[in-house]
Design brief:
Layout (H helix, E strand, L loop, with lengths): L5 H31 L2 H16 L1 H5 L2 H11 L4 H28 L1 H9 L8 H23 L3 H20 L2 H4 L1 H29 L8 H13 L3 H18 L5 H38 L3 H27 L1 H9 L7 H9 L1 H17 L4 H17 L4 H27 L6 H12 L1 H11 L4 H27 L6
Length: 483
């Protein structure tokens, strides 16, 4: 078995298309709110959206990820698949219902906590509804992901994240912001039920291996896998959000902005590789179910080498062009404090190594290795943060990212027993990434403000990189990228 088959690349292309559609919705919906309402409406909408997104992992109890691993691991056992799927849907549905009821009953109290004033109690139920709908969407998405029906998962993602927010917010002028958010929650819930219906029919048609006290056993297996990963979601959120908040207590808001932009750049990099993780978790879990082959190990090694070297090239180019990129991004000629941005961007290879190996690690073991890795990284960050200096904060953040990447590689090698590749391949790739840096710097000075020329230069560099790295690995492996 190989990961990088022709069907993988085809499915990956459709997954990227679904991600683009979802990203378009995330981009367009706030723009619609700002145009049909005002900045206060935009602030309320973004706050509700961010809170609802943050609640998905706790509300699902990690069961969406559990289905992504356990279903392909036990492919061919319809009784077990039916048990785990039904129990997951029931648990998340119950938790989401209790969450909505609890917030509605004490809406004045929770309005003060979540929105800063009890007068915002009208936002509590729309928030609870949207968070619950997103949780149900996540577990149904996890079901289709685990069944390797990625096309259904992609459609669900594109519609609920890309289309629904835009359609709902277009009604804001007529029905108001609060009703529009509620409409978004109801539409998401209805679409999730629609997508869940074929899954439920398949589950209830499965009569094999239904006897015995299966409810308790299935719940134990699912929760033992899922709950151990919930703290990891919290840790990664703290690792990527605490720095700017902490810096705001003793640094300038310009420094805070550049620090936050650097972390945003890392999130963009993680989003670029997210579709790969969406596919590798169920594929690798399925490989463990049938026996891990040499081809899977080779493909994982190839994925790691390609990703790390490519992110190194990207981070060096972004850091070199940081002045021009920030001016274009922010629409300002002042880029004071961009040192924070540059340092965090240069940490991209280590942080993205963790993001790339996160799903393979989850696929290989029920033990929550990623939670412990993130906990250690958060401790390293905290040591730097308590110094209450900008230098200490950045050093702590970079140390945390370095620990993330290093520990992830160590754990993945232990679980998969793969070789990282020939030293010459790594050195050739690193050298290719470093050599263009002075040329990029000269191009920026020579053609400052002429973005088209810089863009063409970067595209040519990317094309040369792909040709070079493919030739190097074909020389070492004798076969190149698997077909």
């Amino acid at each position: 078995m190989r990961i990088f088959s022709r069907s993988f690349w085809k499915t990956l292309a459709w997954t990227y298309a679904a991600q683009v559609a979802a990203s378009a919705g995330v981009f367009l919906a706030p723009a619609i709110v700002a145009r049909l309402g005002n900045m206060e409406d935009l602030g309320r909408y973004l706050l509700v959206q961010r809170l609802a997104s943050s609640c998905v992992a706790p509300l699902t109890l990690g069961l969406a990820v559990a289905l992504g691993r356990l279903l392909p691991l036990n492919k061919g056992k319809p009784g077990m698949e039916a048990r785990w799927s039904l129990v997951s849907f029931a648990i998340v549905g119950l938790v989401a219902t209790l969450f909505m009821v609890a917030l509605w009953v004490q809406r004045t109290f929770y309005a003060g906590i979540l929105f800063g004033t009890s007068a915002a109690s009208t936002l509590v139920f729309p928030f609870a509804l949207l968070a619950s709908a997103n949780a149900l969407q996540a577990v149904v998405y996890g079901y289709y992901r685990g069944c390797l029906r990625i096309g259904w998962a992609n459609c669900l993602q594109a519609v609920t994240v890309g289309v629904v927010p835009v359609v709902a917010m277009l009604q804001m002028k007529r029905i108001g912001l609060i009703s529009a958010i509620m409409l978004m929650g109801y539409m998401t819930s209805a679409i999730v039920v629609l997508f869940a219906s074929p899954a439920l029919r398949a589950i209830f048609r499965t009569t094999e291996d239904r006897g015995g006290p299966w409810l308790q056993d299935a719940s134990k297996v699912l929760l033992s896998y899922g709950l151990g990963r919930v703290p990891g979601f919290i840790f990664v959120g703290l690792l990527l959000a605490t720095g700017p908040v902490w810096l705001a207590h003793y640094g300038s808001m310009t420094d805070v902005a550049m620090y936050a932009l650097g972390l945003s750049a890392l999130r963009m990099g993680a989003a670029f590789f997210a579709p790969v993780g969406i596919l590798t978790l169920p594929l690798l879990a399925s490989a463990f179910g049938t026996g891990l082959s040499r081809g899977v190990r080779d493909d994982l090694s190839l994925l790691l080498r390609f990703s790390v070297i490519m992110t190194l090239l990207g981070s060096l180019q972004v850091a070199t062009l940081s002045r021009t990129l920030l001016q274009v991004w922010l629409g300002s000629t002042s880029v004071e404090g961009r040192g924070f941005f540059v340092l965090l961007v240069l940490a991209a290879p280590t942080y993205l190594t963790f993001e790339i190996l996160r799903d393979p690690i989850d696929a290989a073991s029920a033990f929550p290795y990623n939670t412990f890795i993130l906990g250690l990284a958060l401790c390293a960050f905290a040591v730097g943060a308590v110094t209450r200096t900008s230098a200490g904060l950045v050093i702590g953040q970079l140390a945390g990212f370095l620990l993330l990447g290093g520990a992830s590689v160590a754990v993945a090698r232990r679980l998969y027993q793969f070789t990282p590749g020939k030293l010459r391949s790594w050195l050739d790739g690193i050298l290719f990434c470093v050599l263009p840096v002075p040329f990029t710097w000269l191009m920026q000075r020579q053609f400052e403000g002429r973005l088209a020329i810089l863009a063409v230069f970067e595209l040519l560099l990317l094309a040369a990189f792909l040709m070079f790295i493919g030739r190097v690995w074909k020389r070492d492996s004798g076969s190149g990228v698997p077909p």
